[in-house]
């Protein structure tokens, strides 16, 4: 039996895959403790999962959710900068509170979301092993891969590599203050400085929710990096659900179903929902729109779409012909796991990078936000709906995801890392 500690952002898209891993490890007889701020622990309160609350002073109840609502109104670089500022504050809180909380919980190994990689410094300070989990898109850098926050296509040309280098330099500039917090803390704790960003990722195992077939070609990932696929609970349901919200399935007409969702973060953009509704007016389809928030106020949209505050995500995607999304990792992987093609409208953070990978696989279309209007979106939906190649590609990825091993394979790797304290090589799994 091992005592595992988990750290990840308070967003549902990060909590759901992490909790699926936690519950699988619990089923194997281990003790798993989730460390989180009040808003995060509220979201997982319905699960049989041990928790430790941190950040109560810095993040009182509803403060994180309020920040996420603000983020939901932002796009592009402003949205990215706002997110980075959130992580800077979180990192400062981690360094003050996490060491004592982890020590008191007698943790043997930490499971760290790649987006919360500042906890790796805490692990080093405490002398604890850790594994890195990429719940969102992996952000490991290499010359041939565009920055995660761009919609740039993959290319091996010298010009593209120069473009990538300049893009990463901009990300470095935007994240300078955050990185400085980590630099100073490592110095104060007498830890060796990082020579590169990847030094903050686990030397034992790095686990990615992205299937390798969905990513751009990679040449420099470590031997202990594991592409896996969707971290889905074996039951097929997401750990954090809103079952008390009823969906009017009786209103489904049998027409081809278009399911639209901007996730739980980038959902404060009524003009995008309106554009989606208008684009479907002349199509022989039925539109369902999830506003992504159980407390969302009703909005009037053109036509007669079914608009709900929050929807039974998986059940609707399984019935859909096309999913319209902001290109959040959770929605994209759920759709591909069901063999359903997508139309992606990336808004900020890593969504452009996810959308550009979707376009490359030809399992869907990417439509940049700057080019979004009723005509361009209708054209994209019609194309994905009518051309069978998109569904064929989506089903190919579905087969890959289903054969990936999911959270059971993740748990195997984490257990091996905990037992041996040696790198778990991808070829050995």
Description of the molecule:
By secondary structure, the chain is α/β, with parallel strands linked by helices. Helix content is 41%, strand content 13%. The protein has helices at 12-27, 38-43, 63-71, 76-104, 119-126, 158-174, 176-188, 270-279, 313-319, 329-337, 351-361, 374-386, 388-402, 406-420, and strands at residues 3-7, 31-36, 50-53, 109-113, 130-134, 206-208, 225-227, 257-261, 286-290, 306-308, 322-325, 342-344, 364-366. The strands form two sheets. It has a seven-stranded parallel sheet, sandwiched between helices. The longest helix is centred in the N-terminal third of the chain and has 29 residues, at 76-104. The radius of gyration is 21 Å and the shape is globular. The mean pLDDT is 92.
List the helices and strands and how they pair.
Elements lengths: L2 E5 L4 H16 L3 E6 L1 H6 L6 E4 L9 H9 L4 H29 L4 E5 L5 H8 L3 E5 L23 H17 L1 H13 L17 E3 L16 E3 L29 E5 L8 H10 L6 E5 L15 E3 L4 H7 L2 E4 L3 H9 L4 E3 L6 H11 L2 E3 L7 H13 L1 H15 L3 H15 L9
Parallel strand pairs: 1-2, 1-4, 2-3, 4-5, 5-6, 6-7, 8-9, 8-11, 9-10, 11-12, 12-13
Helix pairs in contact: 1-14, 4-5, 4-7, 8-12
């Amino acid at each position: 039996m091992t005592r595992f500690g988990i750290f990840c952002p308070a967003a549902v898209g990060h909590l759901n895959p992490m909790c699926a891993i936690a519950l699988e490890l619990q089923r194997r007889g281990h003790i798993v403790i989730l460390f989180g701020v009040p808003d995060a622990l509220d979201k997982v309160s319905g699960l049989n999962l041990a928790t430790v609350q941190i950040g109560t002073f810095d993040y009182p109840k509803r403060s994180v959710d309020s920040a996420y609502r603000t983020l939901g109104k932002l796009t592009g670089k402003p949205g990215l900068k706002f997110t980075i500022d959130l992580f800077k504050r979180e990192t400062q809180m981690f360094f003050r509170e996490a060491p004592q909380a982890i020590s008191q919980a007698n943790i043997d190994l930490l499971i760290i979301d790649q987006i919360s990689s500042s906890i790796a410094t805490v692990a080093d300070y405490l002398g604890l092993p850790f594994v890195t989990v990429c719940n969102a898109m992996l952000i490991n850098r290499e010359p041939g891969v565009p920055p995660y926050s761009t919609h740039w296509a993959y290319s091996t040309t010298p010009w593209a590599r120069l473009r990538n280098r300049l893009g990463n330099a901009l990300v470095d500039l935007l994240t300078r203050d955050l990185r400085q917090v980590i630099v100073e803390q490592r110095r104060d704790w007498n830890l060796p400085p990082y020579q590169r960003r990847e030094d903050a990722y686990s030397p034992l195992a790095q686990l990615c929710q992205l299937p390798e077939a969905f990513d751009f070609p990679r040449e420099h990932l470590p031997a202990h990096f594991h592409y896996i696929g969707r971290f889905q609970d074996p039951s097929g349901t997401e750990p954090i659900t809103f079952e008390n919200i009823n969906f009017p399935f009786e209103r489904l007409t049998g027409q081809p179903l278009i399911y639209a969702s901007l996730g739980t973060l980038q959902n404060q953009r009524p003009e995008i929902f309106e554009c989606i509704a208008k684009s479907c007016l002349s199509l022989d389809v039925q539109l369902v729109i999830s506003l992504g928030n159980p407390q969302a106020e009703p909005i009037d949209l053109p036509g007669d779409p079914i608009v709900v505050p929050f929807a039974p995500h998986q059940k609707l995607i399984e019935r859909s012909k096309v999913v319209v999304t902001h290109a959040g990792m959770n929605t994209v992987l759920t759709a591909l796991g069901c063999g359903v093609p997508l139309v992606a409208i990336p808004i900020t953070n890593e969504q452009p990078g996810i959308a550009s990978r979707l376009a490359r696989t030809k399992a869907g279309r990417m439509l940049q936000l700057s080019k979004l209007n009723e005509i361009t979106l209708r054209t994209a939906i019609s194309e994905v709906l009518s051309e069978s190649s998109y569904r064929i590609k989506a089903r190919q990825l579905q087969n890959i995801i289903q054969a990936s091993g999911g959270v059971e394979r993740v748990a195997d790797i984490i257990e091996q890392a905990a037992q041996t304290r040696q790198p778990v090589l991808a070829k050995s799994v």
